[in-house]
Amino acid sequence: MQKLGLAGTGSQLLDVFFDHRHRLIGLAARITGCRSQAEDIVHDAFMKVGGATEGEQIRSQASYLTRVVRNLSIDHYRRRQLEERLMCSEDEEDECLVHHSETPESLVADQQLLERISRVLADMPQRTRYAFEMCRIHGMKQKDIAAALGVSPALVNSMIRDAMLRCREIL
Predict the structure, then answer these.
(1) Which of 25, 103, 138, 168 has the most CB atoms in a 10 Å sphere around its CB?
(2) How far apart are CA 22 and CA 17, in angstroms?
(3) Whether residue 23 is found in the same domain as residue 79
(4) Rounded to the nearest 5 degrees, what angle is found at the Cα of 93, between the Cα atoms of 89 and 99?
(5) Dihedrals phi, psi of 5, to nearest 5 degrees
(6) Domain extent at residue 154
(7) Is 165 part of a structural domain of the chain?
(8) What is the rounded end-to-end Cα distance, in angstroms, of the chain?
């Protein structure tokens, strides 16, 4: 693939971009659900990165690019969801809600799955359940959980991993 003459500027970040382009498109496609939109998002990321100044220091260029693409993809997805909600007029509101709702069978299946997960969580040791819920439900950082429990972050990581494995077993 030709690098459009931009590699001649000595920009390492753009070289990394081209090396990871297919992975970045895959990431964006998983978030947006559409490969063509994902390609547009990756192009937008390319334009943002291409406009960055050479003097900026980036520790991990691949991680930086991944974060830019991920953030743009999430923004695109959220904007599309908002537009879909706003496009439904009051007359079409009931029809839109029915169109986007799940079937009664899938709702019951989801409820049963949640009940099984709840039982698995209830059977876990209290510390493990606390670590898992704080991390996965409340978004608390593992180092903060470790401080709250008075244990090492490695132990918290292990507890969360064990809880995840138990939950995945019932899936």
Answers:
(1) 25
(2) 9
(3) yes
(4) 125
(5) 75, 0
(6) 104-170
(7) yes
(8) 42
Phi-psi region of 37 (alpha: psi -120 to 50; beta: other; left: phi over 0): alpha
Predicted confidence (pLDDT) per residue in 56-100, tens digit: 666 777 888 888 899 998 888 888 887 777 666 544 555 555 545
How far apart CA 19 and CA 16 sit, in angstroms, is: 5
Minimal CA–CA distance to 135: which of 115, 160, 110?
160
Is pLDDT of 159 > 90? yes
Residues 120-134 have pLDDT tens digits of: 888 999 999 999 888
Whether residue 1 is contained in a domain is answered as: no
Q: Is position 96 within any domain?
A: no
| Cα–Cα distances in angstroms (integers) from residue 17 to residues 20, 27, 88, 103, 137, in the given order | 5, 13, 38, 42, 33
CA atoms of 171 and 113, how far apart (whole Å): 8
